[in-house]
Design brief:
Blueprint: E1 3-7, H1 13-28, H2 34-43, H3 46-55, E2 58-64, E3 69-75, E4 83-86, H4 95-110, E5 116-121, H5 126-132, E6 135-143, E7 146-154
Antiparallel strand pairs: 1-2, 2-3, 3-4, 5-7, 6-7
Helix pairs in contact: 1-3
This protein binds coenzyme A (COA).
Coenzyme A binds next to helix 1, strand 4, helix 4, strand 5 and helix 5.
């Protein structure tokens, strides 16, 4: 299935929020206590996402042929993946992998001093991140009402032929 990826700006906030909410509620919310789920949904409503998009080190969206947004990645800092979500009806089509590839290329080009990118992985996303070369750097932990595992990707591993994939 074809899709394109392009950088996101704050005017994509409503569509980005819809993708995050649909994906979170179907795939990730099991790892969150009810109050924390509500807090996450509030923080990722269009207004909150718009502010994050405006200040992101990188934000990219995946779009279907009809222009519908079907996935997004948002890096608030060049060394941190904050959000990476794909529409639940479009899983296992390489969309998240392609989003990360664009984000990584941007960070390597624009922030060459950044060697390691980190994130908090929910349990459903852990195998996906492992497939990209991220490795756990913590046990699973609870924080702010949700459980996650801290993971990291050392970007220079690729050029040394030493990626963990
Ligand atoms: C995790 C997520 C972003 C993956 O999106 P996706 O577009 O389906 O992933 P891709 O198609 O790019 O997958 C690439 C590879 O990752 C691995 N992978 C992806 N999803 C997987 C799963 N559920 N179980 C095991 N491996 C998985 C596979 O190796 C896959 O390659 P393959 O399909 O050829 O076997 C998506 O499931 C999602 O949006 N989850 C909910 C939100 C979330 O938890 N985001 C992360 C917040 S930390």
């Amino acid at each position: 299935m074809k899709f394109t990826i392009r950088p996101l700006t704050a005017d994509a906030a409503a569509a980005a929020s819809a993708v995050v909410h649909a994906s979170f509620q179907r795939l990730a919310s099991n790892d969150w206590l009810p109050d924390a789920q509500q807090d996450f949904l509030q923080r990722t409503a269009p207004e909150g996402i718009g502010a994050k998009l405006a200040s992101a080190a990188y934000a990219g969206g995946a779009f279907a042929a009809d222009g519908t947004m079907i996935g997004l990645v948002l890096m608030p800092e060049p060394n941190l993946v904050g959000l990476l979500f794909v529409d639940p009806s479009r899983l296992r089509q390489g969309i998240a992998q392609a989003l990360w590839a664009k984000a990584r290329a941007h960070i390597e080009a624009e922030f060459p001093a950044v060697e390691t990118v980190e994130l908090n992985a929910t349990s459903n996303a852990l195998p996906f991140y492992c497939s990209l070369g991220f490795v756990p750097i913590s046990l699973e932990f609870w924080r702010n009402g949700h459980r996650a595992t801290r993971m990291a990707c050392w970007l220079p591993a690729r050029k040394h032929g030493a990626e963990c994939i």
